[in-house]
Hints:
The structure holds two protein chains of two kinds.
Chain A: E1 5-9, H1 13-24, E2 28-32, H2 36-55, H3 61-69, E3 71-74, E4 85-88, H4 94-107, E5 113-116, H5 123-127, E6 136-141, E7 150-155, H6 161-174, E8 178-183, H7 190-206, H8 212-222, H9 229-236, H10 238-252, H11 261-268
Parallel strand pairs in A: 1-2, 1-4, 2-3, 4-5, 5-6, 7-8
Antiparallel strand pairs in A: 6-7
Chain B: E1 2-8, E2 13-19, E3 24-32, E4 36-45, E5 51-57, H1 60-71, E6 85-92, E7 103-104, H2 107-115, H3 124-137, E8 143-147, H4 157-160, H5 166-172, H6 181-195, E9 204-209, E10 213-219, E11 222-226, H7 249-256, H8 261-270, H9 273-278, H10 284-292, H11 296-319, E12 325-329, H12 330-335, H13 337-345, H14 356-360, E13 367-368, E14 377-380, H15 385-402
Amino acid sequence: xYIKTVGVVGIGTxxxxxxxxxxxxxxxxxxxxxxxxxxxxxxxxxxxxxxxQIEKWALTKSEKKLIMNRIEPATxxxxxxxxELVIETITEDLEQKKAVFEQIDNICGPEVILAxxxxxxxxxxxxxxxxxxxxxxxxxxxxxxxxxxxVEIVRGLKTSEDTFTRTKHFVEEIINKKGVMVFExxxxxxxxxxxxxxxxxxxxxxxxVASAEDxxxxxxxxxxxxxxxFEMCDRFGLDSVLAALDRMFRExxxxxxxxxxxxxxxxxxxxxxxxxxxxxxxxDKDGDRI
Amino acid sequence: MKVLVINAGSSSLKYQLxxxxxxxxxxxxxxxxxxxxxxxxxxxxxDKPEVRNVSEILDHVTAVKRVVEMLTHxxxxxxxxxxxxxxxxxxxVHGGEVFSSSVLVTQEVKLEIRRLFDLAxxxxxxxxxxxxxxxxxxxxxxxxxxxxxxFHQTMPNxxxxxxxxxxxxxxxxxxxxxxxxxxxxxxxEQAAEYMKKPLESIKxxxxxxxxxxxxAAILNGKSFDTSMGMTPLEGLMMGTRSGDIDxxxxxxxxxxxxxxxxxxxxxxxxHSGMLAISGISSxxxxxxxxxxxxxxxxxxxxxxxxxxxxKYIGSYAAAMNGVDTIVFTAGVGENSVDxxxxxxxxxxxxxxxxxxxxxxxxxxxAREITTDSSRVKVLVVPTNExxxxxxxxxxxxxxxKMS
Lengths: 290, 403
């Protein structure tokens, strides 16, 4: 079955990036949110991202128009009946995600792949609320989606071989990213390793060993990271990093996953990183560092 | 014999059906938006009204099937049965070093076109899909491929090598290939015919100036040099392509502006050329109009554009130790009176005397735009790449049948 139309449920940071990337690959995309305001905001952010690419000469104005035309906003899940693949990217909350999977399971035909962009939650548990758990799979994209050519393809306990093969084909042939196969485990590969990296950087900061700026420079320049651990954390969103660490701490029960106190304090203060303008560093409304 | 000519792109496919007895077009058309549920087929039979049809066409196989259905349609078709199509000719952008002329499609030829995917990642895979699609729709019809690069395979190594480590040539085949070969070849033959002289006896410079643009130096009837190189980005300034620049600009800009490979590629291919300088458009007509309305940037774009054509003509005249004929062709070259005038006026020392009246004439056939006493003849020759593809295909298939 050809995948031509993809549904994206939830149009937050990851949803925007995924929808934009899919549309630039020539696919038709249906984006779903609760309210028209959130849809409009999501579309506006996609436009901002495309405009930035025009500034960098990566796109032309007419290419931007074509991409935006391929994205259809909707507040009703019924629209997803036209999709061959649906990617859920709502907030990292198990109960909310379960509710979404229950709904789309009823709307989409049994051969439609239902994917979650979750970075820590159990696919097996998400699949348990559906009638066809064999077609549920994880597709974990990495931020910024259009730049990072990697997808963790996560197999739940009941994910079928066919679902995996079709997803891998989609990832590697249609959207031209490298797909790595991961068996379900909290944090998979990428989130588990990178969150520990960030958490350890926070400990180094707490202990007064070096400033955030210097820690970032040391890792960025010393080991060819694009961003250091703190800017990375700002860009992921401090709340997302905290949620991932909390989840892994609970699942593994190991102290190394316990989130740093500084991180908790900043999240409570609403300093969530690039999206709120302030985290470890300051950002303008386009998310560029000031 | 009736020959179908196909130019397959990644999401589009253009076609012409030729009757080779009279070399006339029976029908032409295009399929757009292949891969989507609302693909458009536009079919234009010669003496019947145009037909448009929107349907779901997911791949090239279905696209060719629709084309065949259109061609054999009882109402707006051009032939009564599909077995009237006796050969199919394909345009293929990159023929690498292996193909120096058109060939019939065989297993080895297909393998070779596949090997060239690396050098023409945007074009060759799409052409291959076109070939396979014809195979599955018309399994017994012979197919031929005509390469954009083939005509330039006669270039000497002094023209085609880059002065960079030779290991790169051996490892990756990095060298100059040149493009628009079908057009340069076609118009040079037409020009020789027009002048009633053998092509071998004329030192000729052909200027194919359309959306993309290239010049070719034709010596002894063969391509001696051409302005496009390993990719169509080298050479003349174009609508949105930079043409020749100092290659050190690339890493410099990538560093200063923090650009990725993709971004810098797109900058040079889509955001440069006339569009970048004029700030208005990549279209010569719009830039010329703005210039005539007094727009300074449009004038600068026009002047830079014509200056660079002039430089290439001058260098090719030097390369061949003389020039007898200059030919303008393709969209801009055939239609822009101002462009031809600006180029010819500045190089009168070569022996060009432009006849302004002749230059301003608008006709569809080959014509001369210099005065009768001009030592160097300048011609305008409309290009017709499809016809050349049809001719090559016809000849190859006829030969194969005889032997």
